[in-house]
Amino acid sequence: KLKTSKLFNKLFGIEGQIAVKNLKRSRKKYRTTVISIFVSIVVFISLNTVIDYGFKMSNMYYEDLGYNISISGKRHMGDQEEINAKMLNYYSSISKLNNVSEYSVIKSYNFTCDKKYLSTKANEIYSEDEFANVEILSVGKEEYEKYLKELGLDVSKCSQKGILIDNINSYYDSKYVEFNYLNVKEGEKIELTEDDKKSTIEIVKRAKEAPIGVMELSNTAYVIVSDEFIDKYNYHVQSMNINSDNPDKLIKDIENMDKEMYNEVY
Predict the structure, then answer these.
(1) Cα gap 178→53, rounded to integer Å
(2) How many Å apart are CA 242 and CA 213, to the nearest integer?
(3) CA–CA separation, 221 and 214 (whole Å)
(4) Tell me: the pLDDT tens digits for 144-174?
(5) pTM for the complete prediction?
(6) In this predicted model, what pLDDT tens digit does every residue of 197-216 receive, in sequence order?
(7) Are 136 and 177 a contacting pair, CB within 8 Å?
(8) Per-position DSSP letters for 229-240, written without gaps between them
(9) Contacts 24+ apart (CB under 8 A), 81-89
């Protein structure tokens, strides 16, 4: 005796007619069904969001680093050039040992740039900062050339240009956010400040993937450059990062190396 819409009947057929008539006969059952469906959807979306955030946060802390040995020295007082030379000599000796599959030697130099380069989200989160932070990094000739090849770039055309890595993963305002630190496009230049001196670097590529040894970002942008580019500055030798097939054996070999050289560096 209960009537149903013709459009409803066309859309859902006889099964839909039986279902809707059953709901109309019992309003209490109808309300219970609607509330049950609503609660189920809310619980599903909430749990799915929490689990998704959980995976993203755990990936931030437990992502594959791409290497299994990291060596870094203390910051020494004194002539930076001399300290750099000693550390690079030490790392060069390590690179010649057996069981070194691939490695990077990180040189770094810190710059600042005008806040106009910050993205909208970065401006919102880091609103109290007076400027944007940019760190240029080199990773050694072999790793640099391998990295450029992976990005499809010509090494000969990039020696005085940089690859920008500025994808930030952060927990802000009670939620997980991903954003770019800088609002800079490929082919554009960034004006960098070093004390009172100005430098510019062209961004040849934006990348999410980083070379071996380049760690997760936090309110800064990394620009990967050639050794030739960073050697113009009074850089700091940061670390050596190695991927080894036999890390235990390699660590023992490193420990048994020239103790005098080790003491000079550390």
Answers:
(1) 12
(2) 8
(3) 11
(4) 999 999 999 999 889 899 999 999 887 777 7
(5) 0.73
(6) 788 999 999 998 899 888 87
(7) no
(8) HHTTS--EEEEE
(9) 81/234, 83/237, 84/235, 84/236, 84/237, 86/261, 86/264, 86/265, 87/237, 87/265, 88/237, 89/261
